[in-house]
Each structure stands twice: as C-alpha cells, then as structure tokens.
Amino acid sequence: VMTCLIRQASGCFTLENAKTLQELEDNFTITPCKDVLSDFDKCVIENQRNYFLAVNGAQFRAKSLSNGSDNLTFYYNNELIGIGQKTKDNLYKLKVRLD
Predict the structure, then answer these.
(1) Interval 40-99: pLDDT, tens
(2) Could you tell me if 96 and 80 are in contact, meaning their C-beta atoms sit under 8 angstroms apart?
(3) Which H, E and C letters describe the chain, residue by residue?
C-alpha cells in the first residue's frame, strides 16, 4: 500500500526551486513560457508564409534543431509561438499556440 508520493521534478521544476504558499503570496512571479519549455527541442519557422500557415492551423515547414523528440517548440523571429509535432509528411503542425 502506498502511503506517500512525492514528485521530485516536472520538467524544469524541482523541489529545490519550489515555493511555499506564503512565498507565492508575498512575491508572486510568472515564469516565462520559453523558460518552462526549455527542455523541448526547438524548431525555427524561417519565413512569413510558413508562419501564416502555422498560426492558422495548417501544416508548415520549419528548420528543426531537434534530435527526433516529439516535444517541439516553434519560434518565428526569435519569438516563441507554440508547441507542436512533426507530421508523417515531414511537415509540422502546431498543437498549442502561445503568441
């Protein structure tokens, strides 16, 4: 029978950088998405046409800096625009838009 379960880490969040409720109430800060998603592999959308396709839900082309991971972040003009995946057609598709 399990009597206790403690999550040691989730992505970049660890017990060492966890805050108490009192600390949050005293000094609440928001961690930027790009910091939270730093473990995800990065893809760069290199032109406006592919950016337009991406933000409108279509498949698009991007330059992958990935090692084959399923977790990808997409950037356009050095700005994080979303999280997505590679499709079976060697294109990409945003799953979550962040801009």
Answers:
(1) 899 999 999 999 999 999 999 999 877 777 789 999 999 999 999 998 888 999 999 997
(2) no
(3) CCCCCCCCEECCEECCCCCCHHHHHHCCCCCCHHHHCCCCEEEEECCHHHHHHHHCCCCECCEECCCCCCCEEEEECCEEEEEEEECCCCCEEEEEECC
With 80 as the cut, is the pLDDT of residue 39 above it? yes
82/84 Cα distance (integer angstroms): 7
Torsion over CA: 17, 22, 28, 30 (sign):
positive
First-to-last C-alpha distance (Å) of the chain:
45
- Cα 1 to Cα 4, 5, 48: the distances in Å are 9, 11, 56
Quote the pTM value.
Answer: 0.76
Whole-angstrom distance, CA of residue 56 vs CA of residue 82: 12
Separation between Cα atoms, residue 11 and residue 34, nearest integer Å: 12
